[in-house]
Amino acid sequence: MGRRLVYFVAGLAVAAVALAQEFNNPSNLAPYVPSPQIVVEKMLEAAQVKPGELVYDLGCGDGRILITAAQKYKARAVGVELSEKLFNDTTAKVKALGLEDRVTLVHGNLLEVDLSQADVVIIYLLTTSNDQVKPRLEKYLKPGARVISHDCVVRGWKPSRIETLKADRRAHTVYVYEVPPARP
Questions:
Q1: What is the model's pTM?
Q2: Domains of the chain by range and CATH?
Q3: What is the pLDDT of residue 132?
Q4: Checking CA distances to 58, which of 16, 83, 108, 132 falls within 20 to 30 Å?
């Protein structure tokens, strides 16, 4: 039992150092934590993605949401990733799968991307980061667009649906938000 505790504490220390390194860049709004594939499927299903729609994944990491949207839903997808390593790895993966015609990757800050063409925006950020993204979503998204947030709410918005599921021995929550019709 004592040895397990030592390994656990050592693991926490390593994770803390990695997290601190990630947040040295003020543009980084969340640590890289990949969504389990079952959660990816639930987010895209909850978004009711249709063929040809444009799905944005802000902080796309390894691209699993983009790839699933393109392969399973025949959607077009744009991923925005700040990490050069993740961007390069995901670009190579998309190319190897032959999805360059449906998946576009942007290496940069998700707060600087034009979202005006998005039908669906997927985020897995911290709640405080969602606060930073929210004004851009409100400014650029057209009526009927959907925002899907994994685990963290968008404060001040009322979700149209909340889905919960278990994966990797913990509960995950998927919040579905819909941009209301324009007011006359």
A1: 0.84
A2: 29-178 (3.40.50.150)
A3: 93
A4: 16
Model pLDDT, residue 20: 40
Give the amino acid at 141.
L
Residue with tokens 């997290």: 19
As given in the structure block, the two tokens for residue 157 are: 């918005």
Q: Strand, coil or helix: what is 148?
A: strand
Distances 83 to 31, 87, 89, 121 between C-alpha atoms, Å: 10, 6, 10, 19
d(C-alpha 137, C-alpha 87), whole Å:
23
In the chain, the amino acid numbered 61 is G
- Range 47-62 average pLDDT: 97
Residues 6+ apart with CB under 8 A from 163: 42, 46, 173, 174, 176
Pairing of strands 120-123, 146-150: parallel
Q: Which helix (H) or strand (E) holds 178?
A: strand 170-178
What is the rounded distance in angstroms from the CA atom of residue 172 to the CA atom of residue 141? 25
